[in-house]
Amino acid sequence: MQHLNLFDASLRPERRWLNLPRLALAMSLLLALLWGASQWMAQRTRAQLERNAAAELQIRQLGQQAPAQAAAAQQQELDALRQRLAQARLFEVQLQSLPPSEAAPELLEALARAAGPEVWLTAAHWAAAEPRLELEGRLLDGRQLPAYLRRLEQQPAFKGQRFAQLSLGEPEAGGVQKFQLRSSSTSASGRAR
Questions:
Q1: Which InterPro entries is this protein grouped with (predicted)?
Q2: If you placed Cys at 169, which of 114, 178, 187, 188 could pair as Cys (CB 3.0 to 4.6 Å)?
């Protein structure tokens, strides 16, 4: 008697894992996978290109706006400087039209010593008979006016004068404020030297 082992590998039918239909299926799955990956990469690339284009456009727009804003600021500053120059010329004309007075040089020196970079005068009227001084001008900062008043009152040329009447205008462009200032004699005989 002979025993046959039916589980012997030589008796089993040969199985081929790789045959033509399976190979075609594997290739088509691989191609579909590659096609899907390429579509996904193309979509990401397009999105990145769109973001880059939007960023470049924004940079160009900012680059165009910055010079325009700088030019506008420079024009405003130039206009303010022209206005100050015109006021200085007007003040010079007014000073030249004042009648000669013995006290004029001393008064002008006192005004110059009291002035600071935050104050500029546009008109000055001296009434020697009363005596009274009226000033018109502009300030960069209204908070500087008390210090300017103290400097004026400390000038020897204005001894006996009290700067008590003040009107301060609303701030203009750039924070500049107009002011008018009038002195009065502290005594009936108090005269400026």
A1: PilN
A2: 178
Give the domain 102-185 fold.
Answer: Gyrase A; domain 2 (3.30.1360)
Q: Which of 145, 148, 138 is nearest to 88 (CA)?
A: 138
CA distance to 22, 41, 49, 60, 66, per residue, from 54 (Å): 48, 20, 9, 10, 18
What are the extents of the domains in the chain? 22-97, 102-185
**What is 50-108 written as a DSSP string?**
HHHHHHHHHHHHHHHHHHHHHHHHHHHHHHHHHHHHHHHHHHHHHHHHSPP-SSHHHHH
